[in-house]
Design goal:
Blueprint lengths: L7 E7 L4 E3 L8 E6 L4 E3 L10 E4 L7 H6 L23 H11 L19 H6 L1 E9 L5 E4 L1 H8 L10 E9 L7 H19 L5 H4 L16 E9 L5 E8 L5 E3 L12 E2 L3
Antiparallel strand pairs: 1-3, 2-5, 3-4, 4-5, 6-7, 6-8, 9-10, 9-12, 10-11
Length: about 270
């Protein structure tokens, strides 16, 4: 996989309380590296093998939609009483029943808290050059979440299954590629402008900080462009240096040929120093 060096972070280390093996769910201790889209792998860099994908260790109530879809068990609290639940303190069940009766509250109903989502643009979105990102911000504090479209739509329609009343939701068009001779500058100007407008028009302070001022997030250098390899850095599966035209797919994979429709589309590997 071709990954520009400015799009990855290498030589990171975890002590076992952050990431786990995505397949076995065993906590991971050791070196790791991350891609621009948030995916994480074992090893100091992409050249170090074996390369095992990691995932963030989440608490039981995280990723509620995935838990539902895979029939995983999870604990959830019923939002039926307007008092704070104190650990170890029993609530007065008679008071709860009376409250539910007066307010006509359905005790079977639950409300989920929206979860952080990490998007990945599709091949079609890269060809288009833009994609939509969805966000929520707490009304009383500059606390942000990025959402998937499903959660955003639930909150936009005031779906009773999800906590929406304490959030302000919004979406933006995120630029992925430029058409000028300076694509990175063009993309930076476009995305920073979108962020500035959101902060000013909606009064959402701290949004730029939440995105780490990363205006080139999801930008893949050379995507949809005809590129030329001189044999320095890209190799064929057998380790032979590749010289010739190549293209880059939306996920960052370099392949031989001018485009995906032309050439034999052999996957190339990048050699890191």
């Amino acid at each position: 996989m071709y990954i520009p060096k400015n799009r990855i972070k290498t030589n990171l280390y975890t002590r076992g309380n952050e990431y786990q093996n995505k397949e076995t769910k065993v906590p991971y201790i050791g070196h790791y590296w991350t891609m621009y889209n948030g995916t994480t792998f074992t090893g100091k860099n992409p050249n170090e093998k074996p390369q095992i994908e990691l995932e963030v260790i989440q608490i039981a109530t995280d990723n509620i939609w995935q838990a539902e879809s895979t029939n995983e068990e999870f604990q959830q609290y019923v939002d039926t009483w307007d008092s704070e639940v104190v650990p170890g303190q029993m609530q007065n069940l008679d008071m709860i029943t009376t409250y539910n009766f007066i307010t006509e509250t359905d005790i079977a109903s639950v409300r989920y808290t929206p979860q952080q989502y990490y998007p990945t643009p599709t091949e079609e979105e890269y060809e288009l050059g833009v994609f939509t990102r969805y966000f929520a911000c707490k009304i009383n504090e500059p606390s942000y979440l990025e959402l998937n479209k499903k959660t955003y739509d639930k909150m936009r329609t005031n779906d009773p299954e999800i906590v929406w009343v304490i959030y302000k939701i919004f979406k933006i068009q995120w630029t992925l590629k430029g058409i000028t001779s300076q694509p990175e500058l063009e993309i930076t100007n476009a995305n920073s402008g979108q962020i500035r407008l959101i902060e000013e028009r909606k009064g959402l302070k701290g949004f730029d900080e939440f995105l780490n001022s990363n205006y080139l997030e999801f930008y893949v250098e050379g995507i949809n462009e005809v590129l030329m390899s001189n044999g320095d850095g890209l190799v064929l599966p057998d380790g032979t240096a590749y010289i010739g035209e190549y293209h880059i797919m939306a996920d960052g994979t370099p392949m031989t040929g001018r485009s995906h429709n032309k050439g034999n589309n052999i996957v190339l590997e990048q050699i890191y120093d």
